[in-house]
Write a structure and sequence with these properties.
Length: 270
């Protein structure tokens, strides 16, 4: 197996048994594990009898830790980076050190493993493969509204905290025409729950049920506009103006909020 200087190692998002054999092997073999919260990581390491030394690496000390890690690597040490849960650099720290490692010629690799957004999407049915992932939504209502308007034709996937979810869904219901939304919480854990329904129904459901745990949510694309317009007629008008298929798809998507991939498929079929 090829050796690397630096390993990005995903950790379970809930169920500890979701860790891979390779992740356990790497965490045992490296000299140092850089982690967000040493208390959280230590529970994982103890579970798998891993005795590797840990150092803290989180969003508040990223820049100051870079030189220390470069020192270790120049000394021949191997380092693994983990987050509290899921894949580092995916809404978690790591971008700063990886950029510096590549700049300084150190080898970096990432292991396959747990990711909350992928786990969530794999059990939620969608019309198309494309989606917009925003990480955690901004705190400003105006910024959330801008995202909802700018991505009307694409499924929006995001992380949210339990205390903000209901307010976020209320903003969604104000901007959209009561879209279908999905909410997943406590994924891979004992009390895992995924709810898919119209937005007002999901708001009502979670208003009556205690919200706890990590949350992943999706706002599905708005289909109402597509049903209200005659796409074939619009396509014919634009074809007569000598627009190409991709151009027509982009124009209709921007004007009417329909999915440009669906429009493009419709054009090339006819």
């Amino acid at each position: 197996m090829k050796e690397y200087d630096f390993y990005i190692v995903p950790t379970p998002i809930g169920n500890l048994d979701d860790i891979t054999f390779r992740a356990i092997e790497i965490l045992k073999r490296v000299d140092i594990i850089a982690c967000e919260d040493m208390r959280v990581t230590q529970k994982l390491l103890n579970h798998f009898n891993i005795r590797t030394k840990c150092i803290s690496y989180h969003k508040f000390n990223e820049k100051e830790r870079v030189e220390k890690m470069l020192y270790f690597l120049r000394d021949g040490k191997k380092i693994a980076l983990v987050s509290d849960a899921g894949t580092p650099l995916f809404c978690d720290p790591g971008a700063v050190i990886v950029k510096e490692l590549r700049k300084n010629g150190f080898s970096v690799t990432s292991l396959a493993g747990a990711n909350a957004a992928a786990t969530f999407l794999s059990q939620v049915s969608r019309d198309d493969e494309d989606f917009f992932f925003n990480g955690f939504l901004p705190k400003s209502k105006q910024q959330i509204e801008d995202i909802l308007r700018n991505y009307r034709t694409t499924d929006i996937v995001f992380y949210e905290s339990p205390n903000r979810l209901l307010n976020t869904l209320k903003i969604v219901s104000e901007i959209r025409k009561n879209p279908v939304v999905a909410v997943g919480r406590e994924l891979t854990k004992v009390f895992e729950e995924v709810v898919v329904d119209e937005c007002h129904n999901v708001i009502e459901y979670f208003s009556k049920n205690t919200l706890k745990g990590e949350i992943v949510a999706a706002v599905f694309r708005d289909k109402a506009d597509k049903e209200e317009i005659n796409l074939d007629e619009k396509i014919d008008v634009l074809r007569a103006k000598n627009f190409k298929a991709k151009e027509i798809a982009a124009i209709l998507s921007a004007l009417y909020g329909v999915n440009k991939n669906e429009v493009y498929k419709s054009i090339i079929k006819n």
